[in-house]
Amino acid sequence: MSAERPASKAAPLLDLEFDGGGLYALRSTVAAHALEAGLGDGWVNDLVGAAHELAANAVVHGGGRGRLRLWKEHEALHLQVSDSGEGNPGEPARWGDSEGSGLWMVRRMVDQMDLRTGPYGTIVTISLAITDASRLRITISEVQGWRVLALSGDLDLRTVPDLTAAVSEAAGASSRLVLDLAEVAFIDSSGFAALIGVRQTFEALPSGALVLAAPSERLTRRLRTLGLYDRFRIHLTVAEAVSVRLGGYPDTGGSSW
Amino acid sequence: MTETKKDRRPDAGFQHPLMLGSGDGTFADLALAFLAEGLARGERVAAAVPETRLGTLAEAFGPRLRLFDLTEIGRNPGRILPLVLFAFADAAEGDDVRILQEPVWEGRTELEYPACVQHEALTNLAFAGRRMTVGCFYDASALGPAVVADAHATHQGPGYSPEAVMDRYDLPLPEPERVHAVLRFDAAGQEGTRAVAAQCAAAHDLGADQSIDVELVVNELTANSVAHGGGSGLLRIWGEKDALVCEVTDAGRFADPLAGRRPAGLSVTGGRGLLLVHCLSDLVRTHTTENSLTIRAYFRR
To answer: Locate the MEDS domain: which residues (chain B) (predicted)?
Structure first.
């Protein structure tokens, strides 16, 4: 194994050996560590898919087993899969050489891919940049005197502070707030608690109002299950939300919407 | 205005009587009489029964009776309290409340039954001192003597001992043949449990909606371990014949036996995590030992 290239000087987040029976657990484990390392939600599936392809190749063409290492270096996450080099002796082409091996898919998924193959076996290293973006993006705008916060991503334990900060800023600027929930993908119990907190903040303001706009069907069901649906003013679109009169009825007369 | 009603129930406390029948004919006799009495008194009346009973009751009482299909909403016995009993009672605006309940029927599985007993026992705690009646029908000929004995223990009358019967059914859970994912987590690793849950749900062919349910339930269980269960825990996920099972074990205990079974209302501090777990899972089973708490959530495929 002396030919095996050292993965990196960085301490590995994950270093495990696998065989064909362990691919399922491998996917789960890679996903968990990648998320923990700060890889964005959307990229985790790509990394997991790539890891699966590489590991499956090692199993099928590389002697039935292999080794997977994951580490973080230079604002990127690197994943390396190596096999034992004990693949079919009668088959000169190693799995890394074949374009039918699913490697084209891996190439498309990741930012960088490095493949070395030789008598020691095959080593593939892939890299994905870690973007620093919060998993909740908040876009602030002003529509007809309403402050509108458009949320995109996950509203959970980790991102609730971002919402709280944006809401206190908004409360200083306007007494009327729309939370546009159209792009919220995931909301947990702390997220629901935060929405109630926002409601309380704005109800305490003189002539304050909070409207939730464009919740998905799923989110609407959740709000109903939790007995919260009737506690909020909810509208299907932001346009409809900002045309609400403070008495609570949509302002349809003379509206340009 | 409730003060002017005639024949208002004189006693103030919670009534949880057992109506023991034998065969469908006795259901008609006992249940209809129980409900008719409530309607005659001007009480708000509901029935939470398996699907097969709905027709009889709708025919007898029409729109005066609010019906809940327990085959659906009570599939997980843990959500009968928040989504049926509390929901109906809390909306009564001070009127007297009477609910007919049949949480145990012949088709209940061995896996579901302990959760039914737990629900019945906790119903006493949930409404202690509150002016309302929850009458429970059990078909003795279909359910057998052991179930009848348990029903006596969870309902007012001779043999009443809800805490003892809850302890008796706090059983070790059957060990799975093969576990697909195991993950030890702490505060830093808790976030990763969501991705594991999503992967497992996809691998077991759960649909997109149900996968998000699984992800949320696992998120709430593991967040609970971090906040209340000693800061860390063990997540295990596997498939069974017709279900995906997610299990979290930690060093916690139920400080509040009704945790997750009460509506959270507008509280901004917690109380909604385990409620979501109960509402989104098809069955929730728990087991406590001296120094550990295990919660299993089942998702039907």
So the answer is: 16-156
B69, β-bridge pairs: B49
For B48, phi then psi, to 5°, come to -115, 100
Instruction: Report chain B residues whose CB lies below 8 A from the CB of A226.
Output: 263-264, 272, 275-276, 279
The bridge status of strand A65-73 relative to strand A14-19 is: antiparallel
Q: What is the mean pLDDT of chain B?
A: 92
Residue B128, both tokens: 């202690």
Asked whether the beta carbons of B220 and B277 are under 8 A apart, the reply is yes
Q: Looking at residue A190, what DSSP letter applies? A: H
Domains of chain A: 14-129 (3.30.565.10), 137-241 (3.30.750.24)
Between CA B117 and CA B76 the distance in angstroms is 12
* Residue B184 near chain A (CB below 8 Å): no
Structural Rg of chain A based on CA atoms: 25
Q: Are strands A176-187 and A209-213 parallel, antiparallel or unpaired?
A: parallel
CB B298 within 8 A of CB B238: no
What number is the ipTM of this complex? Answer: 0.88
What's the rounded Cα separation, in Å, for the pair A87 and A83? Answer: 8
Contact between A187 and A218 under an 8 Å Cβ cutoff? The reply is: no
* Among chain B residues, CA nearest to A26: B181
Q: Average of pLDDT values for A9-24?
A: 83
Q: Which residue has the higher pLDDT, A64 or B298?
A: B298
Interatomic CA distance for residues B275 and B262, integer angstroms: 7
